[in-house]
Amino acid sequence: MLIEILGIIVVLMALRTLVAQNRSERLLYLNVIGFSMSAIIALYIQTPFGAIIAITFFVTSTLSSNAIAYSLGRVKEEIMVK
Amino acid sequence: MNEILGIAIAAVISWLNFVLIDTWMGLPEAPGVKGADVIGRSVQERGGDLAGGFFQGNIVCSPDASAGTLLAAIGCYAIGIPEGGLIAAVLVYFGNRLCADPGYAGTTGALSITVIIFLTSFIGFKTEYFIIGMVLAILTIQGIYHPGASRLLGKIAQKMGRHTKLT
Amino acid sequence: MYLDFVNLTTVSAALTLIGTVGIIALPKPLDKVIMFALLQGGFIGMIVAAKYLDVAMAAAIFDPIATIILLIGIIKINEVRKKNQESKEDGNLA
After folding, report:
1. Over the stretch A40-58, which tens digit does the pLDDT of each residue have?
2. Where are the domains of chain A?
3. Predicted structure pTM score
4. What is the ipTM of this complex?
């Protein structure tokens, strides 16, 4: 039952990421998805190596969200070629 | 211990654990890394509180007590009750240094939730309740309504004397 | 009954599809990168569901490095375009 609840949370947050208007809002929903996917991986593979993979996945997804947030600050408004 | 009741109580305990430890360590005061600044100002523009926005930005951009709580619960579930929490605390410390964050919020959160999991295991709380309780706690802070959650975090920060002085 | 469909495989497939739709449909490059991070999450979920754990470890370490390289590229190209635009405006004024 636990994986089902987490799965529904992941799909709802993904749909909210797709339709959100503001970019920083999208980053916050992405963070919730990172937490939930890490928990699902740990609950699905119940051995110690599964926990190590879940922890590595979470730390690296936090690093990539940090990089995306930094670029959002650096590039205020992109110049697109028509 | 009934499962739904156990998950609800574990969610409340994890929420209190990471919010109090993070606020005490100064997360709402200033953005730890530059990305948190962007997210905090954007939440403020949409009608929220700036200190709460910095808190939410710091949760996204670097492993803090919320990450420490979740990873220590995962470690205790798969590896065993005190060892898993300690291994998770070491890995959260590495993650903190990789994100260039000089704080210790992640390791403190991991160690404190390991103690709580150990104590509540005698009452009948299974470790899974804390994993899913932590995900539900993060969902309430970052998944439902950002300006409202940031105002609540700003009020807690003000009560503990850690509200931000930047504008 | 419908809760039988929610397991790690279907959730990861749904994440991958939503990420792909986002990459194709959204116009600005940074939004595409955010959807790419979603796609990476779904991809690792599918690998773990097939129980290839060492492949999942490698993917978890290398995918964010790919995102960081992509972001460095976007920052560089934006600065080059900004400089071109400014020099074109200076040329118009002169």
Report:
1. 999 999 899 999 999 999 9
2. 2-74
3. 0.92
4. 0.89
